[in-house]
């Protein structure tokens, strides 16, 4: 993550973010962007277009959680896309051999512009079936939807609108859950993730921008957006952290704690990126016991975590990692440990594998 001067004026944060973004992700590239219709994603879409990104596939998943309001969110996003795309067509020259406004049926030959990708899923039913919280089910559903679009469009980079306050809240949530440094790193400005066998590069340009600066941007550019009434519902943990825990901590400490937590999360993210580079390749089906034994305990845990995720093992936490670490103990007799969904990690002939 770039080291923004957190606490400076909104304009300075935007300039620094823009400079890094334009250098890493060229304006003429094709990208996905997740847009819910809420304040943050509307600002991100407007800002990306304003700095010159014109080949964007706007992805919106209708969660079917709020009845007509959910449908209205989808229509709002679609109209925004059509409005911006119309403006782009009006001011951009036609491509050689094409007619302005005509769209090709093949994604790889479509003219530059904004395109709308809509998905629909009954998230409440999905959460019940998977025995997950609504929030976790909604998050997993969105990323799965993004991965499907990425595969179909052959476009594997997506912009998301998480901002500095989101980073602070996620840090605290993971801290209270007892996460290690990987969890405390929370979100990174640029990260990679494998979802349903699809590699996705996730870019969060607003991670150094505070919610109040986003509000200022909305007022300055007179942007309209969809207000989600569920954001005020205190049942979801994130909302309790945002509306109750952080204000309470700031009251008893007598200061704004957000910048300090933001810095801690940023430092953790940078250390995580370095640590990942020190780990052995996790793409192999088997992992060497001897190689793991040579690593310090901290790197052993991280290597096992990375390897288990590469093997698509679910529900990987500290206890699971420690059980797998028993397999490399030269004095131990354990050769097999249980994993979620009736899977196992087994040691044989100096190798650990999943069965």
Can you describe this structure?
The chain is an alpha/beta fold and 355 residues long. It folds into two domains: 10-93 and 104-253, 3-Layer(aba) Sandwich (Rossmann fold); 280-354, Chorismate Mutase Domain, subunit A, CATH 1.20.59.20. The chain is 48% helix and 13% strand. It has helices spanning 10-24, 39-51, 68-91, 123-130, 134-153, 164-176, 181-184, 211-221, 237-253, 258-277, 289-293, 297-310, 318-325; strands at residues 31-34, 56-62, 114-120, 157-159, 190-195, 198-203, 287-288, 336-338, 344-348, 351-354. The strands form two sheets. The chain has a six-stranded mixed sheet with strand order 3-2-1-4-6-5. β1, α2 and β2 form a beta-alpha-beta unit. The longest helix is centred in the first third of the chain and has 24 residues, at 68-91. The radius of gyration is 22 Å and the shape is globular. The relative contact order is 0.11.
Keywords:
Rossmann fold; disordered N terminus; 355 residues; six-stranded mixed beta sheet; 10 strands; 2 domains; 13 helices; globular; 48% helix; four-stranded antiparallel beta sheet; alpha/beta; Chorismate Mutase Domain, subunit A
Helix and strand layout, with pairings?
Blueprint: H1 10-24, E1 31-34, H2 39-51, E2 56-62, H3 68-91, E3 114-120, H4 123-130, H5 134-153, E4 157-159, H6 164-176, H7 181-184, E5 190-195, E6 198-203, H8 211-221, H9 237-253, H10 258-277, E7 287-288, H11 289-293, H12 297-310, H13 318-325, E8 336-338, E9 344-348, E10 351-354
Parallel strand pairs: 1-2, 1-4, 2-3, 4-6
Antiparallel strand pairs: 5-6, 7-10, 8-9, 9-10
Helix pairs in contact: 4-5, 6-9, 6-10, 12-13
């Amino acid at each position: 993550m770039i080291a923004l001067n957190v606490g400076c004026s909104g304009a300075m944060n935007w300039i620094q973010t823009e400079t890094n973004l334009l250098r890493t992700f060229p304006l003429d590239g094709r990208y996905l962007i997740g847009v819910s219709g809420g304040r943050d994603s509307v600002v991100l879409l407007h800002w990306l277009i304003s700095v010159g990104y014109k080949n964007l596939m706007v992805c919106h998943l209708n969660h079917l959680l709020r009845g007509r309001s959910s449908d209205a969110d989808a229509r709002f996003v679609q109209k925004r896309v059509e409005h911006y795309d119309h403006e782009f067509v009006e001011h951009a020259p036609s491509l050689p051999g094409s007619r302005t406004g005509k769209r090709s049926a093949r994604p790889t030959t479509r003219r530059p512009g904004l395109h709308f990708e809509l998905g629909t899923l009954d998230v409440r039913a999905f959460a019940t079936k998977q025995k997950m919280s609504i929030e976790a089910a909604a998050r997993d559903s969105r990323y799965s939807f993004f991965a499907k679009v990425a595969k179909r469009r052959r476009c594997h980079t997506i912009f998301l609108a998480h901002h500095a306050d989101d980073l602070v809240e996620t840090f605290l949530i993971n801290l209270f859950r007892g996460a290690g440094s990987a969890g405390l790193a929370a979100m990174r400005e640029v990260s990679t993730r494998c979802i349903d066998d699809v590699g996705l590069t996730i870019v969060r340009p607003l991670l150094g921008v505070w919610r109040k600066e986003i509000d200022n941007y909305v007022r300055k550019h007179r942007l309209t957006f969809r207000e989600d009434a569920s954001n005020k519902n205190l049942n979801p943990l994130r909302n309790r952290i945002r509306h109750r825990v952080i204000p309470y901590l700031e009251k008893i400490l007598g200061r704004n704690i957000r910048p300090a937590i933001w810095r801690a999360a940023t430092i953790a993210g940078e250390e995580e990126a370095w640590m990942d580079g020190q780990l052995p390749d996790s793409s192999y089906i088997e992992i060497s016991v001897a190689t793991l034994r040579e690593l310090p305990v901290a790197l052993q845990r991280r290597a096992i975590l990375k390897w288990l995720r590469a093997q698509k093992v679910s529900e990987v936490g500290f206890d699971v990692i420690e059980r797998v670490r028993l397999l490399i103990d030269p004095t131990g007799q354990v050769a097999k440990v249980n994993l979620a969904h009736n899977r196992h990690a087994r040691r044989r002939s100096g190798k650990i594998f999943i069965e």
